[in-house]
């Protein structure tokens, strides 16, 4: 089975449409959506409706911190402009879309795979996996063969050997990576809707369970159109500007 893992969609319709088209061309059979459907972008309702359709077809979907903020109100430690985007988002969503967000779990486990938005140590506290030590802590807490995390917008792959040695590297676009079962793996696919590694192309990953291979993909999309929609909505202009350079 080929499983596409998407995260941090951030209300970016153009990016999500491009990624879904690309995934279909890769003959993906199932999707996992790791949260942050809303925030920053101009089309939260469309993104949520698309996610609901995918879930109805068997996709996994999780709650992200921006999704939680849309439900409960933005926390004080969230940046002022991000809080502004959450307040705007709350005015755009329908009752059915709020209900969908309320239905989302923090984590989901399927066999040897654990999916979380942030990390497996304390999923609801929204801590980042920034280092090898963070990755080891999550792998040990998760007790799984494969752990997929969002929240960090930069693609990265960590691995833990049977002798507790951890390594990591930045994956290359489209290059299959063997992920055999004698190691544990933590993959951060990067962001669909708001990449932050200097590459504006949308990021996601595909796990081929039968082949035990993981491929990270970058998908160009019409980021100028997405940026124009952000400006037209009256959201902070730098949310639009950053889409063009992936920052």
Automatic annotation (TrEMBL):
Residue span(s) of domain Calcineurin-like phosphoesterase: 1-210
Entries under CDD domains matching the protein: MPP_superfamily
Record Gene3D superfamilies: 3.60.21.10
Protein name: Predicted phosphodiesterase
Pfam families listed in its UniProt record: Metallophos_2
A cellular component annotation (GO) from this entry: cytoplasm
InterPro entries for the chain: Ap4A_hydrolase, Calcineurin-like_PHP_lpxH, Metallo-depent_PP-like, Pesterase_MJ0912
GO MF annotations, alphabetized: phosphatase activity
Top-level taxonomy: Bacteria, Pseudomonadati, Pseudomonadota, Gammaproteobacteria, Nevskiales
PANTHER family registered for this protein in UniProt: BLL5683 PROTEIN, METALLOPHOSPHOESTERASE
Family: Belongs to the metallophosphoesterase superfamily. YfcE family.
